[in-house]
């Protein structure tokens, strides 16, 4: 499974490690990605999502149903 947040659509970034001698080597900036279950009041069931910490805060602030509706419109999550 790919490392993409199902709420925000964020992916891992690629950058450089920079040594004191300014030698650069490639590295990745991984996400703070967690698998979490959320209770949906509208559907009366648990929904499991792979979300970042920012995605969890977004769900806490705006509500699960509003966030999922927006994520489905953008194509980040596909719930059956």
Would you kindly provide a written description of the structure presented here, covering whatever features stand out?
The chain contains 2 helices and 4 strands, in the order E-E-E-E-H-H. The chain has 80 residues and is of the alpha+beta class. Strands 1-2 form a two-stranded antiparallel sheet. A hairpin with a 5-residue loop joins strand 1 and strand 2. The chain is elongated, with a radius of gyration of 16 Å. The two termini are 18 Å apart. The mean pLDDT is 94.
Which key phrases capture this entry?
80 residues, alpha+beta, two-stranded antiparallel sheet, 2 helices, 4 strands, 26% helix
Quick take:
The protein has 80 residues and is α+β, with helices and mostly antiparallel strands. The chain has helices at residues 53-62, 64-74; strands spanning 13-18, 24-29, 33-40, 45-52. The chain is built from 2 helices and 4 strands; from the N terminus they run E-E-E-E-H-H.
- The number of distinct β-strands equals 4
Q: How big is the Rg?
A: 16 Å
SS-derived structural category: alpha+beta
- Which spans have pLDDT < 50 for at least 5 consecutive residues? none
H/E topology pattern = EEEEHH
Q: What helical percentage do the residues reach?
A: 25-40%
* Envelope shape: elongated
Trace the largest sheet across and list its strands. Answer: 1-2
Beta-strand percentage range: 35-45%
Largest sheet: 2 strands, antiparallel
**What is the distance, rounded to the nearest whole angstrom, between the alpha carbons of the first and last residues?**
18 Å
> What's the mean pLDDT score?
94
Count every helix, treating DSSP H or I runs of 4 or more residues as helices. 2
């Amino acid at each position: 499974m790919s490392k993409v947040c199902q709420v925000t659509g964020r992916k891992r970034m690629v950058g450089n490690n920079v040594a004191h001698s300014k030698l650069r080597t490639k590295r990745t900036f991984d996400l703070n990605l967690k698998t979490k279950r959320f209770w949906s009041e509208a559907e009366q069931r648990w929904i499991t999502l792979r979300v970042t910490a920012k995605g969890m805060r977004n769900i806490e602030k705006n509500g699960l149903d509003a966030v999922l509706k927006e994520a489905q419109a953008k194509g980040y999550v596909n719930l059956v």
